[in-house]
Amino acid sequence: MRNQPKYNFFKNSSYALKGLADIIKSETSFKIELFLLIPVCLIIIFLDLTTVQKLLLFISYFFILIAEAINSAIERVVDLVTLEHHELAGRAKDVGSTIVFLSIAQCLMVWVTILLNIL
């Protein structure tokens, strides 16, 4: 049996906002990536691109934030299970870091492809 309360949109949204506030408060890399979202959005707005291209640039960057949130969740669950060094715990954290790395690589590929196309 799952330990899950009955679905409530507003209550679930409050959980999501609580998690977002916690990540912003405690994760330096998420804060940096969130701060960089401002200049990224400004660049996207002022580039002479189609709406679809602008959306692709934004979504590709936003995936970095999603990946960072997933990485933070993995790290917290691992730390909840054990604070001692364990090979599997380290491997789980490494996979979380890989998710972030791949999202950054994907973002760079999208940006380079689109920006080279307008030059």
What does this 3D model show about the protein?
The chain is mainly α and 119 residues long. It has a single domain, classed as Helix Hairpins (Orthogonal Bundle). The chain is 84% helix and 0% strand. It contains four helices and no strands. The protein has helices spanning 9-26, 28-46, 51-81, 87-118. Helix 1 packs across helix 2 (28-46), helix 2 (28-46) packs antiparallel against helix 3 and helix 3 packs antiparallel against helix 4. The longest helix has 32 residues, at 87-118. The mean pLDDT is 94.
Features:
single chain, 119 residues, mainly alpha, Helix Hairpins, globular
CATH topology: Helix Hairpins
* Strand element count: 0
The number of distinct structural domains comes to 1
At CATH's second level, what is the architecture? Orthogonal Bundle
* Fraction in helix: over 70%
- CATH C-level name: Mainly Alpha
Number of alpha- plus pi-helical segments: 4
Q: Could you say which overall geometry the principal axes of the C-alpha atoms support? A: globular
Topology, pairings included?
Elements: H1 9-26, H2 28-46, H3 51-81, H4 87-118
Helix pairs in contact: 1-2, 2-3, 3-4
Summarize the structure.
The protein has 119 residues and is mainly alpha-helical.
